[in-house]
Design a protein that fits this description.
It is built from six helices and seven strands; from the N terminus they run ααβαββαβαβαββ. The chain has 199 residues and is α/β, with parallel strands linked by helices. It binds S-adenosylmethionine. S-adenosylmethionine (SAM) binds next to helix 3 and strand 2.
Length: 199
């Protein structure tokens, strides 16, 4: 197992490569699902900020197990050798009028998972505020288009209003909490907000 920060990055990156995933982020979703059982076989899942495609591929292979549907959306294309038949991909801004309408048309969803992150500028206040906006958009989407008893995962940069968003999630879900996966880089200020069992 990894010992230093750099080793840890290498460990997860190499592991992802050897298992056929385009990004090390797969291990964050794996850890989240092991802890909270977000997705089960046959579910309909919306994956926001899906490129290059590790979460989408892992969801197909290990969580819905080739059954159900994954609607994936990103500003950038997926980078998968083979896009599984369960996946419908849209390229564009998930919250633009046009793409949002398409996502809604294919819902409602059993789970909404968002690893969406803004292009970072290095200016912490700008980055956290952009991340907060994305997280808020995903919460809005889940208010109407996540099924009752559905689950939600949202990435947010710490310092980006996570307490306020968590408070809203506690109103919408029977359980809501913040989670920092071990697979997150030590120097990353990302956090995942988990909403379980929508009211
Ligand atoms: C950390 S990456 C996601 C990695 C992905 N979960 C995986 O496992 O391969 C964050 C992604 O969020 C996307 N993103 C940011 N804002 C977005 C938006 N408004 N609509 C769609 N995608 C967005 C970025 O283009 C970027 O690809």
């Amino acid at each position: 197992m990894a010992s230093s920060k750099r080793d840890k990055a290498d460990y997860y990156t190499l592991k992802a490569r050897s298992e056929g995933y385009p990004a090390r982020s797969i291990y964050k979703l794996e850890e989240i699902n092991q802890n909270f059982r977000i997705i089960k076989p046959g579910d309909s899942v919306l994956d926001v900020g899906a490129s290059p495609g590790s979460w989408t591929l892992y969801t197909d292979r290990e969580l819905i197990k080739g059954r159900g549907r994954i609607v994936s959306v990103d500003l950038n294309p997926l980078n998968l050798r083979c896009v599984p038949p369960t996946v419908i991909f849209f390229q564009g801004d998930a919250f633009s009028k046009e793409i949002r309408a398409k996502l809604i048309e294919l819902g409602p969803y059993d789970a909404i998972i968002s690893d969406a992150a803004p292009m970072t500028t290095g200016i912490r206040t700008v980055d956290t505020s952009r991340s907060e906006n994305l997280a808020e958009e995903v919460v809005h989407l889940s208010e109407e288009h996540l099924k009752t008893h559905g689950n939600l995962v949202i990435k947010i940069f710490q310092g980006g209003g996570e307490e306020r968003i968590l408070k809203r999630m506690r109103e919408l879900f029977y359980k809501a909490r913040a989670f920092k996966p071990k697979a997150s880089r030590d120097d990353s200020f990302e956090l995942f907000l988990i909403g379980l069992d929508k009211k």
